[in-house]
Write a structure and sequence with these properties.
122 residues, 2 strands, 3 domains, binds zinc ion, rod-shaped
Length: 122
């Protein structure tokens, strides 16, 4: 079986990509996957600083997907928020405590005029 050229009608052997006579391509080659291309393989060898200059952002994203970057566990986000919340609550408690003590010191005894900022000694 042979392939007939759509441009010139020449019979080329089956599986040929181009016409033997006029070099007309028979089939449009499927676009190569980004990861398969030699250009990408070359870029991967470059140091990161050099890579950033050359590679468009979309391609970098594509590469990042391919590298299968380690993903954080699903509970990590919740855990970090809980940790953050704990410190916020702790900070508020400490602040309230410090403030209440400070205010207690500021309260002057009846009939006494205590200058501000001076702790009251009983
Ligand atoms: Zn041809």
């Amino acid at each position: 079986m042979s392939v007939k050229c759509p441009a010139c009608g020449f019979d080329s052997p089956d599986g040929a990509l181009f016409c033997d006579f006029c070099k007309e391509p028979f089939k449009k080659k499927a676009p190569a996957k980004v990861s398969d291309s030699e250009a990408v393989q070359e870029l991967k060898k470059l140091p990161p600083e050099e890579l950033i200059k050359r590679v468009p952002e979309e391609l970098l994203k594509e590469l990042a997907k391919e590298e299968q970057l380690p993903k954080l566990p699903p509970y990590f986000r919740a855990l970090s928020w809980a940790f953050f919340g704990l410190w916020v609550v702790l900070g508020m408690i400490l602040a309230a405590l410090a403030l209440s003590r400070y205010k207690a010191r500021q309260v002057p005894a009846p009939g006494q005029d205590i200058p501000l900022g001076q702790p009251q000694i009983r």
